Amino acid sequence: MGVKYIPEPFRIKMVETIKVLSREEREEALKRAKYNMFYLAGEECYIDLLTDSGTNAMSQEQWAGVMRGDEAYAGSSSYYKLVDAGKDIFGYEYIQPVHQGRAAEKVLFPILLGEGKYSISNMHFDTTRAHVELSGARAIDCTVEEASDPSLRVPFKGNMDTEKLEKLILQYGPENIGVVVMTITNNSAGGQPVSLANVRETAAICKKYGILFNIDAARYAENAFFVKQREEECKNMSIKEIIKTMFSYADTFTMSAKKDTIVNMGGLLGVKEDTELFQKIKGRTISFEGFISYGGLSGRDLEALAIGLYEGLDENYLRYRIGQMEYLAGRLDDAGIAYQAPVGGHGVFIDAKAMFPHIPYYEFPGQALAIELYREAGIRTCDIGSYMLGNDPDTKKQLKADFEFTRLAIPRRVYTQAHIDIMADALIAIKERAASVKGYKITWEPPILRHFQAYLESIE
Ligand code: F0G
C-alpha cells in the first residue's frame, strides 16, 4: 500500500502564484461557463489539469534558447538546429516544423485521404478524427479489447488490434485505406503505451497492403519509457535507441510538440525517406503555416523545441514524471477509486462510469465528474468519453464511447506532491457523495469538436 513519491529532479527558479476561489465563486464560475470546462478562465482554476499540452514548465536552458532564437524569415539557425535534433532522434530525412499537432494533421491528411477513404488507428485523438473527417474520409478505431476494461492490468493497453486491422483492411479494400495511424501513447485510451512489437507488426501489415504508416507521436518519450520498463527486448536499450527503432518502422509522423518536448507551442511532421510527399508537404506548409523554415513558429519557439527534444529523453526526468502518475494512482488504489489501470503516461484517467453507475453515457458521466472536481477543489479536468466523442458524422446520433473517463492530465514539471495529494483528497470526497451527483444534457453544440464549445445543463 502506498507508492513512494519520486522527488523532482530539478529545483524551482521561477514561480507563478495561484489562488483558490471560494465555493460560491466556483459555483458562479461554473454557471457562467455553462458547465463547459473550456469556458473557465485559467485564473479561476486552482490546479489546472485540463491538459498536459503546452502547459509545461521550460528549463533554464530552454529560456536561454528563447533569447538566442534566430528570427530570420528563411533559413534561421534555430530551424537548422531543430531539424538536426529531429533527424538525430527520429532518424527521418525530412523534418518540418508546424505550429502544433493539428497543423501537421491539416497539412498531411488531405494528401492521403478524401471522400471514400478511411484512416485506421489504435485510437484517433479528437483533433485527428476531426481532420480525417474534414478531408471527407472516415476514421475507424482499432484498439485492443483489453483497453475497454479499466480494471484489467496489462502492460500495453494502447496497442493496435492487429488481427482486426487486417480484417478491416480487407473489408474496406486496401486501396481505400489512406493511412494507418499509431498514436503513442494512446491518449484517449488513458495515455496507455504501445509496444515496439505491436508497432513492428502493424508496420508489416501496412507494408503487405501498401498502406502508409503514420505515427501520431505526441507522447513518444513517455511511451519509450514504458517500453523500456515492460518489454523484454528493450530493457537494455536507451530511451533514444527505443525511439529510433520504433520510428524506423513507420513512414511518417505527425507530432504535437506541446507534450513530450516540454514546450508551450510547436509541432512537427516527419517523412522517413525522400518521396514526392516532401514536396506536397512543403507546398501545403507554405500555404497554411508559413515558410518551411519556420512553419508557423517564431525562431525562439524553434530553439526551445530543439532543446526540449533532448530534455524529454532524460531517463531521470521520465522516471519522476511517470512516478507522479503512479503516486496518484497508488492513493486511488488505497481509496478504492477505479481508473484506467495500470496508470498511463500523462495523466490519471478516472473511471467515471464506475464512480457514477447511475449516469448513462448520454448524460456524460466523465463530464459530470469534471464538474464535481472543480466544485470540490477548483481542479479543472476534462471528459474523455462520450461527451468528447460527439455525434456520428453521418447519422448525427450521439456515439457511445468504449469508456467514460475524466482525465487528470498532469502538466510537466509544474505541480508538486502536495498538489497531487489535493487531487486524491478531492476524488475521495466526491466518491463519498457520488450517488447524489446528476448527469448533464447539451443545450447547444457546434457540428465538429463540440466538446470545446458546447453548453450544458444539469439534469434535475
Ligand atoms: N494527437 C494527440 C495524440 C494529441 O493528444 C493531440 C493533442 C493532438 C494530436 C493535437 O495536437 O493540440 O498540438 O494540435 N492533445 C491535447 C490533449 C490537446 O489535451 O490531449 P495539438
Automatic annotation (TrEMBL):
Known catalytic reactions: L-tryptophan + H2O = indole + pyruvate + NH4(+)
N6-(pyridoxal phosphate)lysine PTM sites in chain numbering: 259
Residues in coiled coil: none
Keywords tagged on the record: Lyase, Pyridoxal phosphate, Tryptophan catabolism
Tree of life domain: Bacteria
Signal peptide: none
Pathway membership: Amino-acid degradation; L-tryptophan degradation via pyruvate pathway; indole and pyruvate from L-tryptophan: step 1/1
Enzyme Commission (EC) number: 4.1.99.1
Transmembrane annotation, as ranges: none
Stored Gene3D superfamilies: Aspartate Aminotransferase, domain 1, Type I PLP-dependent aspartate aminotransferase-like (Major domain)
Molecular function GO labels: tryptophanase activity
Top EC class, one word: lyase
Domain Aromatic amino acid beta-eliminating lyase/threonine aldolase: from-to ranges: 48-425
Annotated family: Belongs to the beta-eliminating lyase family.
Subunit note: Homotetramer.
PANTHER family tied to this protein: BETA-ELIMINATING LYASE-LIKE PROTEIN-RELATED (PTHR32325), TRYPTOPHANASE (PTHR32325:SF4)
Protein's UniProt name: Tryptophanase
Lineage start: Bacteria, Bacillati, Bacillota, Clostridia, Eubacteriales
Gene designation per UniProt: tnaA
